[in-house]
Write a structure and sequence with these properties.
The structure holds two protein chains of two kinds. Chain A is 8% helix and 37% strand. Chain A contains nine helices and 38 strands. The N and C termini of chain A lie close together (11 Å). In chain A, 56% of the residues are buried. Chain B is α+β, with helices and mostly antiparallel strands. Chain B has two domains: 201 residues; 133 residues, Heat Shock Protein 90, CATH 3.30.565. Helices cover 75% and strands 8% of the residues of chain B. Chain B has eight helices and five strands, in the order ααααααβαββαββ. A five-stranded mixed sheet of chain B has the order 1-2-3-5-4. The longest helix of chain B has 130 residues. Chain B is rod-shaped. About 1% of the residues of chain B have low confidence. The chains are: A mainly beta, B alpha+beta. The interface between A and B is medium-sized, with 16 and 17 residues.
Chain lengths: 559, 439
């Protein structure tokens, strides 16, 4: 009996709705909430006590990661804490180990992660190339780097790595190898210069304190840390050209904007122009956002950029961008062009119209129905729980958008049809995808501000299958982050980038998933490793998981 | 009579030329104003707008520099002042590009001195920035920050003020341009109304003139038509009178003479004479008899005496067999209605119509059969002459070409205050229908 057979035989695996997953006309999949059944009991603590501190509105992030390298995606949920002087409870981030049967176990304490900190986001990457996923948790105050010992535990190496003594209001972060030396470097977004002592009194009614908008605070530069390869980092923020004290960054995504094989960065700024840092291949970056047309909205306004993702959603070979914004600003939904500029398609599309009233945070492209076209998930939720008092048509809790990619027919929001609980309004923040049950489709993890996390299991009803690929770098960084992978199938080419960051404060799983629909085989798989090496494999079969080791070939994974 | 009819064509042509000239002139005027408006919008408003966008870009850059300098003075960043150098370099490049574009777009009314002053101020600013970064590079952070606070920040504020003022001036200039545009629109609108009023007056005058001309033309035509009808009536009456006179002369004079000659020759033939003389006398007598017959036939055809003596019906009863005999065409004659005495003045014209219609039929219809129908009522007479031949020449379903005979028939109908129609029966051929009031 295989491990998969064991899982399928486990009644718990079915308990949270699979039996209820009857087919709905039109949608070949269903997102079934399995949070409680899976043993996820996380509740976010923003520390809110009435002081209306700005950081309370932002968290938390989440991640799918395989921290113990067993081939099953585990879950990390970031948490805040009570503010000094207002202590009521002890809260920490939570690491949930995948029991390989549809349930998870809370291993936070055992893993050594039961640190109290005001955490916001997380970036997962194997910074020391030892084969185990390490964690960088962004915080209000000192962010933390946790090294994975390979024995199921983590060690705080913040100070030792040279990342200590940095107070900030850090939000999203990502690992990427900007100088292609085989070691993952670290990019950290910072929001504004804020501390409880610098908190500004803002009010909607001139009586009661409300959450301030970022205009009330000075911006803060993002940070770039170069990995020296010896377990320590060097702050290259100033020398790399990243330094920008006016930025108010919330989201970051990696992309190869100019298709030169060197990873560039897109940074979503709140009320400040977005940045598109083009890698100049000499250790420095140049902001080309204005030239590329992504700095401002189509009407020249700096919007409230939150989450961001990059993907070749139209299989054109040129990546597009999505940026979540405040309500009444609609999503930035950019189509990339050959000239290197981007066109915001939202104003003229369904996506713009439907997202106009939503305040978006987490977002990512993923192939929810495994048809080969990337769909788009956006989670929403307002920042002010009293917003309804001021604007009757705006709710604090807002439903997510699940835009199904229908090719030439555009995108259609199917959130309300995806599952009975899926479209329930939430104060959504972080969002990540990963195949936690190893059934070949992509499950969804969401976090809510001052609320529960939600885990949705994806059940394919139409029989669509996928090919999943995990990369292991040897000359490149071990996670293969930055590798561009193209799958050729039936005359079409799907491009995926192994990436850290994206979405909002969150990290999706690193293995890549290519939706195959009803097709059985893909002709070719071409990998462009960050080291510059290109490898090609032929005749991959649908429904299989593969592991590609740089320079050593491909193998099928089981279990 | 004698009133001279003036031809309106020349005046109408002149009116047309004047109208076309008016339309042309107005079109030229409108196009010129539109071109002026376009130039104003392109040269001034659009240019101003684009210039304002560049000024906004400059203002945004200066504000970003201001924020950066505020952070530099605060000194709470983990990075030294040199960290800002790239940002300053980027902003300097963007500012220079924006200034270059702005210079190309700047309104003509802006004085070169002001432009030069701004460029000089900016150059001084960058000079100070270079000094500040030079100090920072030497590790002299404190004096560098002091330079930012005491020199760069005021300079930046001054530059920002300058840009704000330029933006304000652009705004004022745009308002002035908007006023001029409004004036142009108002002028064009006013002139459109003038043009429309003038066009309405010209059209009204032309219409009145045309109505008057048409009325005069129709009056003239009516007079001419009446004169022509009068003349035709007189001609026909005169013709009938002449024919009647000749016929009477032939009957009364030549007929009597020839009858007398015949009687005298008959009397002479009874006298004793040689056979040869008797034969000659017989020949002369036969010639005289033949001449008498021909004379009778001639005066009957010129004006049948039977018409005067027996009326229309008897005249037709006499004429139709004669026609049949002369042409070999079978004519079916029928009469309906009560007999009434048709006045001589009417009968001769009806008779002539029958004559003309049958002769036309014999000449053109190629028909061997004809029908003559006479309908008599107490106050109305209807005559129909019909054949089923090829129809009259020129009759191709679009009306019958009028020959002299047909014109004469129509004139006779008009003389009788009646109506004549030339129709095509369903069987083909021609149907001549004459309706005459008898009252």
């Amino acid at each position: 009996m295989t491990r998969r057979d064991l899982i399928l035989a486990n009644p718990l695996f079915f308990s949270a709705g699979r039996m209820r997953a009857e087919a709905r006309p039109g949608l070949p999949f269903r997102l079934v909430e399995v949070t409680s059944a899976a043993g996820i009991d996380f509740v976010h603590n923003s520390g809110a006590f009435g002081g209306k501190y700005l950081p309370e509105t932002l968290g938390p992030g989440c991640a799918f990661l395989d921290y113990d390298n067993d081939g099953w995606q585990d879950i990390l949920l970031i948490n805040g804490m009570d503010w000094p002087g207002h202590r009521r409870q002890r809260t920490t981030m939570r690491l949930y180990h995948n029991n390989r049967n549809g349930t998870f176990s809370d291993v936070t304490k055992h893993a050594g992660l039961d640190f109290e900190m005001y955490g916001l986001g997380v970036a997962v990457g194997d910074f020391n190339n030892d084969g185990f996923a390490d964690l960088f948790v962004t915080c209000v105050g000192q962010s933390r780097l946790f090294e994975n010992t390979g024995k199921g535990t983590f060690v705080d190496v913040t100070e030792r790595s040279g990342l200590g003594n940095r107070q900030g209001f850090s939000t999203s972060a990502l690992w990427f190898d900007y100088d292609r030396d085989g070691h993952l470097d670290l990019f950290v977004c910072n929001y504004v210069k804020w501390s409880p002592a610098q908190d500004v009194f803002c009010s909607l009614d001139a009586k009661h304190k409300s959450y301030c908008t970022p205009e009330a605070y000075r911006g803060a530069t993002a940070w770039l840390f170069h990995n020296r390869g010896n377990g320590t980092f060097e702050d290259v923020t100033a020398t790399s050209g990243i330094f920008d004290s006016s930025s108010k960054s919330l989201g970051v995504a990696m992309l190869d904007h100019n298709q030169d094989g060197w990873i560039d960065l897109f940074v979503a700024n709140d009320t400040q122009p977005n940045k598109l840092y083009q890698n100049k291949r000499d250790g420095t970056f140049e902001d080309v956002a204005l030239k590329a047309g992504v700095a401002f909205s189509e009407d020249g306004k700096a919007r409230a950029g939150m989450g961001v993702d990059v993907a070749d959603y139209d299989n054109s070979g040129i990546p597009g961008l999505v940026v979540t914004n405040f309500d009444n600003e609609m999503l930035g939904f950019y189509r990339g062009t050959k000239s290197g500029s981007y066109i915001d398609m939202a104003p003229g599309s369904n996506i713009g119209k439907l997202s106009l009233r939503s305040l978006g945070f987490g977002c990512f492209f993923f192939d929810v129905d495994l048809d080969g076209l990337l769909d788009l998930l956006v989670v929403n939720g307002h920042i002010d729980d009293t917003v309804r008092n001021v604007r009757a048509e705006t709710n604090y809790e807002q439903p997510p958008h699940l835009f199904l990619n229908r090719g030439r027919e555009g995108f259609r929001d199917v959130a309300a049809e995806a599952g009975p609980d899926f479209a329930r309004p939430k104060v959504g923040r972080g969002a990540a995808f990963g195949d936690f049950d190893n059934d070949g489709d992509l499950d969804v993890l969401l976090t809510t501000n001052q609320g529960k996390a939600h885990l949705y299991r994806n059940d394919q009803l139409g029989g669509n299958r996928s090919i999943r690929v995990r990369l292991v770098g040897t000359k490149s960084n071990r996670d293969g982050i930055g590798a561009a992978v193209r799958l050729y199938c039936g005359g079409e080419c799907s491009l995926r980038l192994v990436k850290s960051g994206s979405s909002y404060l969150s990290q999706c799983e690193l293995p890549l998933t290519f939706g195959m629909g009803a097709r059985d085989t893909a002709e070719r798989l071409v990998i462009e490793w960050p080291s510059g090496r290109t490898e090609e494999y032929k005749n991959l079969r649908a429904g299989r998981r593969y592991e590609c080791v740089e320079g050593r070939g491909i193998s099928e994974r089981t279990g | 009579m004698g009133q001279r009819f003036s031809n309106p064509t020349a005046r109408l042509m002149a009116g047309l030329v004047i109208t076309l000239a008016g339309v042309g002139a107005f079109s030229w005027y409108a196009l010129a104003r539109i071109a002026g408006l376009r130039d104003l919008q392109t040269q001034l408003v659009d240019r101003n707008r684009r210039d304002s966008l560049e000024l906004l870009r400059i203002e945004d850059d200066l504000n970003t520099l201001g924020l950066a300098m505020r952070d530099m003075v605060n000194g709470d960043e983990a990075y030294g002042l040199e960290a800002y150098q790239r940002e300053f370099t980027r902003l300097r490049g963007d500012l220079e590009d924006a200034l270059r574009r702005e210079k190309e777009l700047s309104p003509g009314e802006r004085s070169p001195d002001r432009q030069a002053y701004f460029a000089k101020s900016l150059a001084l600013f960058w000079n100070s920035v270079d000094q500040m970064f030079a100090l920072a590079a030497k590790g002299q952070e404190k004096p560098a920050r002091e330079l930012v606070r005491t020199s760069l920040e005021p300079q930046q504020a001054s530059l920002a003020n300058n840009v704000a003022r330029l933006l304000f001036e652009n705004n004022e200039s745009e308002e002035r341009a908007a006023g001029r545009i409004q004036q142009i629109y108002a002028g064009v609108e006013r002139n459109v109304y003038y043009f429309l009023a003038a066009a309405v007056i010209v059209i009204a005058l032309t219409s009145l003139y045309l109505i008057r001309s048409n009325r005069r033309m129709f009056e003239r035509l009516a007079r001419l038509s009446a004169q022509r009808s009068d003349l035709a009536r007189k001609l026909i009456s005169m013709q009938e009178e002449v024919l009647r006179s000749i016929s009477r002369e032939l009957h009364d004079e030549f007929g009597q003479i020839l009858t007398a000659i015949g009687a005298m020759l008959a009397r002479a033939a009874k006298q004793q004479a040689p056979p040869a003389f008797r034969e000659s006398l017989q020949e002369v007598r036969e010639v005289a008899q033949a001449t008498l017959e021909k004379t009778r036939s001639l005066y009957q055809s010129l004006h049948p005496a039977i018409l005067d003596d027996g009326g229309l019906e008897q005249a037709l009863t006499w004429y139709i067999p004669v026609f049949q005999k002369q042409t070999g065409i079978e004519v079916h004659y029928s009469k309906t209605g009560a007999s009434a005495m048709v006045a001589d003045g009417v009968a001769i014209h009806v008779y002539r119509v029958v004559q003309e219609a049958l002769n036309n039929m014999a000449k053109h219809s190629k028909s061997q059969e004809a029908w003559v129908r006479l309908g008599l009522g107490p106050d109305h007479l209807q005559l129909e002459v019909e054949d089923h031949g090829v129809g009259l020449p020129g009759d191709h379903g679009r009306g019958i070409r009028r020959g002299i005979g047909m014109v004469a028939m129509r004139e006779r109908a008009e003389l009788l205050r009646g109506n004549i129609e030339f129709l095509r029966p369903s069987e083909g051929g021609t149907l001549v229908r004459l309706d005459v009031p008898l009252s």
